[in-house]
Amino acid sequence: MNSAAYLSKILITSTLTSALFLAGCGSDNNNSPSSQVAPSLITKTENYAPQQTEATTNLSQKITYRMPAIAGGQTTATAVVMIPKGTTPAGGWPMLVWAHGTTGVADQCAPSNLKSENGDFNLGGALPIAQALVSQGYAVIAPDYEGLGSAGLHPFLNSKSESESIISAVKAVKQQYSAQVSNEWAVVGHSQGGHAAMAVAERADDAGLNFKGVVAYAPASNLGTILLGGYAQVKSVLGQPAGVPTAKAVLPDLQAFASLISAGITQYQPAFTYKTGFTSQRSIDIAVKAESECYPQVATEFRTDVANFYNDSANATKLYPGLDENFIQIPAAAIFLVDSTIGQKPIAKPIVVVQGELDGTVPAAITRLLESQVRASSKTNANITFKYQATDTHSSVVLDALNPNGQLATFLKANLPSK
């Protein structure tokens, strides 16, 4: 959900080989289910950043795989798959899913498509994390999510779509590379990816494999509270010396965030339009760019427009004419908030959530609210950890994933040790 998905870091990938997964053949009846070849869940493979990943991977590929679409029927999605260099251990490499933070909703914003200024692929800034995990002996799967790099726009922060994107990717990788990966898997994510990771943990049994738990860094949650809180913060100081600086600091990211939400809503509620959620043509003209530009670009354009609005002293006591203050009461938006909910369903496996106290994107108070919800819904789970880091921001908290003594490393050692 923020530009932290663009950490100036780089993720990993690995070069995979295709294979058909055959169903059992115990009948002479060629029409019987047992004699049929199971349809491949993967429809396409291509090498991913081979020069950047060859030192650490046997296999670095971008896959296209089948998954259920949020609007009904079937669609395809893409993911990067990375398998460690070296001899495959008995039982295969454990699988670890990296769920990415907000990049946008347009195809060009898919992490598998993103590159650094020097032209190198960077997996949305997460390549160093993936490289570190592959080097530790994990087969890393990094889904782009439904609609990112595939048909349609991405249904931003839709819990079902995110979790289905991840679970379908895991099933596809297990089917295609069964000789190289084990049945054991876990998920780790940051920001929007933290939200996706928690959504996966609520239904991980759907993968039919051995799920070991979830690590979420600054997970987006309680989105209505975040939206209302931002506006309340600005309105409380408008007309005071802190008013304009606060508005310029808070409102641009809130508008950009709502633009992605609005674009995503249109994917499964086509009657919803930007005019429904935004109050002026100037803000609509920027919001609609979420369909073709990535999050940082949309946020920058809102930053410029909000600044121009408040540079006119006549607007010092006014609220920027952007997102409707009553957005969460609009029927389509209210449905979105229900569809984005996490923390309300029981999770049986270990949960680790890491939150920065200095986070201005997902405030620590929001994660404390999520903690109360998770503990209430998962009362029988004795393995729930919420860790609050005093000096971390939204961007810096995920660097824990690179710390050999950090929360992720501790979780993996206890629940999904490498082989």
Structure description:
It is a single chain. The chain is an alpha/beta fold and 419 residues long. 33% of the residues lie in helices and 17% in strands. It has helices at 50-53, 127-135, 159-176, 192-201, 223-235, 243-265, 274-277, 281-287, 295-311, 331-339, 364-377, 407-415, and strands at 42-47, 57-68, 74-84, 93-99, 139-143, 181-190, 210-217, 351-356, 384-389. The longest helix is centred in the middle third of the chain and has 23 residues, at 243-265.
Low-confidence segments = 1-35
Q: How many helical elements?
A: 12
Largest beta sheet: what is the strand line-up? 1-2-3-5-4-6-7-8-9
End-to-end CA span: 33 Å
- Biggest sheet details: 9 strands, mixed
Helix-strand category: alpha/beta
In short:
Helices cover 33% and strands 17% of the residues. By secondary structure, the chain is α/β, with parallel strands linked by helices.
Top keywords for this entry?
single chain; 419 residues; alpha/beta; 9-stranded mixed beta sheet; 9 strands; globular; disordered N terminus
Secondary-structure topology with pairs:
Elements: E1 42-47, H1 50-53, E2 57-68, E3 74-84, E4 93-99, H2 127-135, E5 139-143, H3 159-176, E6 181-190, H4 192-201, E7 210-217, H5 223-235, H6 243-265, H7 274-277, H8 281-287, H9 295-311, H10 331-339, E8 351-356, H11 364-377, E9 384-389, H12 407-415
Parallel strand pairs: 4-5, 4-6, 6-7, 7-8, 8-9
Antiparallel strand pairs: 1-2, 2-3, 3-5
Helix pairs in contact: 3-4, 5-6, 6-9, 8-9
